[in-house]
């Protein structure tokens, strides 16, 4: 109840109302069992009940505040539920039964004990404690549900941006212009290569159209498209761009978000110098259930336009697909991105 009772006025107002309800319901049960039992008890009886219930609730509140720092609901809901339940029961029995019997022994003379009365009080304590813990659990689940809805909406938006960015990165005028220029020169120089170039270009677009709406695809399937893409860019940059792919069979059977590899290759090409004096080397390999894409660092002085959506969306997308995070490692010599394989 800590989320609801941080305001002391709300907390104590609720305590008074629950204490009155607890006392009245207890008196109703007693009046039904014992004919001579008066339904309406003296005012001091209600004050005593409010004091005891206040001690119980304030103790539970303080213990739950401590639990919220050490044993959070989000970390382990089951453990927190049982811990809070047993704690609430213990506090309830200690104050309601313990203090009550202390008062009875010290200030009252009794000749016998009604076992039924004690059972009724213990049942009330059990029901009250369980209800409070269930309310707290319900509030936690409600908050988590609302958070999940908000995250789902954000994911839908970012997923749409990711698909748009993936498509834009392939269909942008620069890519088409460079591809058509390369094709134009190949038609006159080497028609056989031109034919292969057209097939590889078609394979890239076929993959985009087929898998752009999929959440996951096999690494081996993604590699088929990436090899076509590599062929296209290496024809453009010739010996100035080297892309080395070394992915094992086991990793090939795991899953990856579509277009991830291509976008990271394109990102390396976009932001680095590629020339005879400064050739760019991109390595793609698997390591401990991660797909690693790394390149030597030689940043362009004049940066090309970038929406900065690609890498952020890859990280955000994987946040929904797996608990393992996308790792971005940058040094003066190497830029490396590690993608978790699913």
Task: Give a description of the structure.
The protein has 342 residues and is of the alpha+beta class. The protein has two domains: 8-151, no CATH class; 172-340, Heat Shock Protein 90, CATH 3.30.565. The chain has ten helices and seven strands. The chain has helices at 8-33, 43-70, 77-107, 115-171, 173-189, 191-211, 219-237, 249-252, 260-271, 310-321; strands spanning 217-218, 241-246, 255-256, 280-287, 290-296, 327-330, 334-340. The strands form two sheets. Strands 2-4-5-7-6 form a five-stranded mixed β-sheet, covered by helices on one side. It has a two-stranded antiparallel ribbon with strand order 1-3. Helix 1 packs across helix 2, helix 4 (115-171) runs antiparallel to helix 10 (310-321) and helix 5 (173-189) packs antiparallel against helix 6. The two termini are 39 Å apart. The mean pLDDT is 77.
